[in-house]
């Protein structure tokens, strides 16, 4: 496989695509809805996700976290497939492109979007790098919830509507929990190697048993949120019903996660990302037909 494909990690992209899809489709019925804004925000999110992946590859290699004992998918810097400097430069290029693309969104959305753009860029760099890497201090799942949940859904809706809504906050929280679950799978797989490297992820801090309990919470809570949103009158029934179909996958994932450790968790990483995309896609389809 092309090393740049490995570096980009296409399996993680649903974490960026899903919330932007929901946020924009939620605003589809608005008179001022703009397909250009929708496409631009989606492209910006994808570029930021790729930048995060490249930063993680580069900084984890430079800090010595990625070693020959690594259990996860191939890291191009650690394996020597790409020079670390090339990965770093590609990361910078993606951030610059995201800023160029996002400048239109900032022009359209004003200072709130400018603030979110700055936070997103700092988050991309600070996830694995900087003086206080979020991933090494148990904050990776929190960052995923905030940036690939609340910021992505509420921010994309705000760009279209010029305001937020309770529905957007509910959906941002739901998808944020699913994306946090992706991060938790990754960190649970790497518990043993992260302990050796001194990386204090949330999974390292709470241990395997509690990580399994947390995963169960993260994959089931989104369904409780949208059902609650329906009964409170904030979400329409059809999207909730369709998204509820993905509960079948959530139950299977939880069952598998509860008995799986180490390298065998790699397939669950991609399947958890698929859950995010399935949940988001089904809810979006339901919104279109409401």
What does this structure look like?
InterPro entries: MenA, UbiA_prenyltransferase, UbiA_sf, UBIAD1. Its EC number is 2.5.1.74. Pfam families: UbiA. This protein has 290 residues and is an all-alpha fold. It has one domain (3-288). It is built from 13 helices and no strands. The chain has helices at 3-8, 14-26, 35-62, 76-79, 84-109, 111-126, 140-161, 166-189, 191-197, 202-231, 237-244, 247-257, 266-288.
- In oligomeric terms, what are we looking at? single chain
Largest sheet: none
Total beta strand runs:
0
Quickly give the structural class.
Answer: mainly alpha
Shape call: globular
Quickly count the helices.
13
Average pLDDT metric: 91
Whole-number count of domains: 1
The arrangement of helices and strands along the chain is HHHHHHHHHHHHH
N- to C-terminal distance: 42 Å
The proportion of strand residues reads: under 5%
Cα radius of gyration in angstroms: 18 Å
Uncertain residue ranges: none
Helix content: over 70%
Describe the structure concisely.
The chain crosses the membrane at residues 34-55, 90-107, 142-160, 166-186, 218-248. With 290 residues, this protein is an all-alpha fold.
Any chance you could write out the topology, listing elements then pairs?
Blueprint: H1 3-8, H2 14-26, H3 35-62, H4 76-79, H5 84-109, H6 111-126, H7 140-161, H8 166-189, H9 191-197, H10 202-231, H11 237-244, H12 247-257, H13 266-288
